[in-house]
Design brief:
There is one protein chain. The longest helix is centred in the first third of the chain and has 19 residues. The strands form 2 sheets. The protein has a 10-stranded mixed sheet, sandwiched between helices. By secondary structure, it is an alpha/beta fold. 37% of the residues lie in helices and 23% in strands.
């Protein structure tokens, strides 16, 4: 009788925990849904997405690659958007932030690539409005979206971003922190994964049109089993899709149950994953399994 009650109590606690996991509410899902799926594999973790520039750039943008059509965008998050300087134990970091600066439910940090700045990920109208959607998903769900500047893609930049993440965690200790890295920004994602202190504060990595790093396997982040999402264009001239897919396969072969997903945008270019990745789908998957 006692054993039955104990098992029942455990089941109840598990169900309550599962039911209470944060999931982002829908926001313009019909506009940002993938236009078509060509193939799937790995139990749904590997997806080949139909991508067509005439439809997905020219048909979506008022001015191709510069300004998306108005119905894709809401400027409501600008009410909470601020340009700030965050002081960390590694120095000061300039950021743009939208949402709750403390007590946030979830935090997403976007790290730009070569030649970018903190303004790239806050631009409401470029990349088909996809950054604006991410901003809205964070703000409308009591979260925080942050785009920082950093000195480089090496030791100093890593230290600055690690310090920023530590600060964000101190202000919102219950929040899951997801780090999205575009292009060369991915080098910082992999460095953070190998930094034990930073990895303890990160709950997921989103790698967009970026590079790979074998050092991730066996890293503190890998040991914690933080989920990793790869978005990559099949025609990416900067980082070949075959090598990134091979890295994804290597992760899965090392640990068959490792939480990794790969979305290949067929005929997509270097910036396609930033334009096309379904932020709500990706973040909700991560929220459901993140440590």
């Amino acid at each position: 009788m006692i054993r039955t009650f104990f098992l029942g109590a455990l089941a109840f606690v598990w169900l309550v925990g599962a039911a209470s996991a944060l999931q982002l509410e829908p926001y313009k899902d019909e506009l940002f849904a993938y236009p078509g799926i060509l193939n799937t594999g790995d139990g749904g973790d590997y997806v080949v997405v139909d991508y067509n520039e005439m439809r997905d750039i020219n048909g979506r943008d008022q001015v191709p690659e510069r300004r998306v059509r108005q119905n894709y965008v809401s400027l409501q998050p600008k009410r909470t958007q601020k340009d700030l300087v965050v002081t960390t134990d590694k120095g000061t970091v300039k950021v743009v932030a939208a949402g709750k600066l403390d007590g946030a439910s979830v935090i997403t940090v976007y790290l730009h690539g070569q030649g970018g700045s903190r303004q790239q990920g806050m631009n409401d109208f470029t990349f088909g409005g996809n950054f604006n959607r991410l901003k809205n998903l964070m703000v409308r769900n009591d979260g925080l979206y942050v785009t920082p500047d950093f000195s480089d893609f090496g030791d100093k930049g890593e230290a600055e971003i690690a310090g920023l993440i530590s600060y964000l965690k101190s202000q919102s200790p219950q929040a899951k922190i997801f780090v999205a890295c575009g292009s060369m920004g991915g080098s910082l994602c992999w460095r953070l994964a190998e930094d034990a202190k930073a990895a303890a504060n990160i709950s997921g990595l989103i790698i967009l049109g970026s590079l790979w790093d074998d050092g991730f396997i066996g890293s503190p982040a890998f040991t914690r089993r933080i989920p990793v999402f790869f978005g990559h264009g099949s025609r990416d001239p900067a980082f070949g899709v075959d090598k990134q897919e091979a890295f994804y396969r290597k992760i899965r072969q090392t640990s068959r149950s490792y939480p990794a997903r790969f979305h290949r945008f067929e005929n997509g270019n270097h910036g396609t994953p930033i334009r096309m990745t379904d932020w709500r789908n990706t973040l909700n998957w991560m929220l459901s399994i993140a440590p």
